[in-house]
Specification:
By secondary structure, the chain is mostly beta strands.
Length: 696
Amino acid sequence: MTLTRPRAWILALAISSLAAPSGLRAQEEPPPEEAIDEYMAMSLENLLDLQVTVATKLAKSARESPGVITVITREELLDAGARDLIDVMQLVPGFSPGTDVEGVVGLGFRGTWGFEGKVLLLLDGLEMNERAYANLFLGNHYPIEAIERIEIIRGPGSVVYGGFAELGVINVVTRSADDFRGISLTGHYGLMERSFGRRTLSLTAAEKFGELGVSLSAYLGQGTRSNGTVETFYGESYEMDPVNSALDPAMVNLGLTYKGLKLRYILDGYRTTNRIGFGDELAPEALHNDLTGHYAGVSYDWRLLEGRMVITPQFQFKRVRPWYQPEELDLDVYASAAYTFIDQTYTTWSGGVTAAYDLREGLNLMLGVQGLFDQAIANSPGPDGLNLFGDGEEVTYFSVAGFGQILWDNPWVNVAAGVRYENHSATRASLVPRLGLNKVVGPWHIKFQAAQSFRTPAVQQFELGVTELPTPTTPDEEIAWGIDPEKATVFELETGYRITQQLYAGINLFDTTLQDPIVYYYDFDRDEEFYANQGQTGSRGVEAELRFQHPVVKAHLTYSFYAEAGKNEVASYAVDGEKGPLLGFPQHKVTLLARVTPIEGLNVSASLIFMSERFAYTSVDASDELVLGREDPTLLLNLYARYAIPGVEGLEVGVGAYDLLGSGYRYVQPYDGYHAPYPAPTREFVGKIGYTLRFD
């Protein structure tokens, strides 16, 4: 396989971490070989009691953690044959993908578009949202084979994580020397109708040298978004293939641990290719969109008072060059193409100290302070000074935050209460509280959470933010610049019951209201873009799951539903003439992941995703006004089989078929941004081969 392409690597040495303190209640880890055996044969009770840290930064089971928590184990990822995080998140209640400018794909949650900073992605404790718009880019980006587990907060996380965790947190934890000691190499090849779908190599290695733990993962490949046909609003079209819709990842992730010290460095080079710019305008030829990022961190758990107190200083550094088109383009040819020619570098320094103290058995207090400094630099002015920040080549922002949390386990009800205050240099301060109550009684558990969270504007929202959208008659000198954080208020109620040793059922209700949501707006009269706080939006609904866990047969069935319930006042998200849905996302979603093990070493799985109809702008009329259309209900069916070759320890092969029914599924833009529906991956047949050498 040939994997060559130009890259613009910016070298930086950095240290940082948003990694949580290991906690005063961290579980004892069995030796890796025993842990693997237990993991693969995990009972339902073991699965429900898996220890997670994403909600509180202290180890608690998913049933005891405040809020609605989903844990996806490595075994589930491998059984499903997940190709990337889109496949994974499609199986999680409430989440659905959507498209935005230049064909990039992100996530919405419970009917709300979360692409621009409303959902936080952590990779081994490091924030992966880029700092220009706080976007997440999905599609053949993050290596599934390196993942140990994924912990997801389906709800607010700002008290602990700050201003990009308004709607949810996705915490991806890769394999470490505590989970695995050895070397694993995996190759993927996928074939669509007219071209390859993906060809990737993934390497994972981990070992312990006394108390020094070392882990390394590397990921390199090429991918194709789809073999579908892009049809613009204006009658133009092109065929998607490796030239016009490439998804090419390159990532290195290095981790070191020594006693209480943790170090992490991630190098991420991700390239997408597309011919669609802003406003559905077709470029003459395919252009690249590069995201190059350096992320690194350090933290140290300093244990005092016989382990009852842990003080954790931590520091993070991130340097990202997002939305960069490296081609030297003929501006006469591309003068009308709505491409941005962005060449900006965003650097973030953050650090702080967290102290966790067990006041007594079952009573823990955590206090923390954090500071953050953002710097954005225009590497070159670009046409018409596009890359400049106002009239300058550089802009800086900073923020200071403090948070506190108390966890009290008692015979009546367990309490998790917290608050965060954050003061930003360019906008108003944010104060958000959280109160969670839960109780586990035998096979039952019940939770209630009332919480607020916030979304801090990213650099470009500050640069383009206005206090009120201008009208065609507003003079430029009278435009009032400025923007505030948006705030979400969320109520959640969850209950679950382990019916038998193999069967579990759970259900949760939610109500989310977003005040002053930050909304994108394009002014055609001025040919200028803005962001503004606009009214409110939100949704309420229900999510349910049924899980059957047995060594031979496993199945996980979920259902999710949302309705805007009269909350939405944002015209960009509204579906005219309909009550309930918001633009771009299905109101009903059903997922099923089922696995059967007919013989030792062979796992055969099926995953099914049903989405009800979606509303999207699918054309324009003679006046260039958007026309609302419907995307039909969609059924995605995937089959996958993995087999451990007998007689060759560590060798495994897998084969799979994705979108077997040829659904014609398309990603749609969840607001009125003049971007036509964009084909999702078409039917793909995938083969995988992996070899693992375990160290004694």
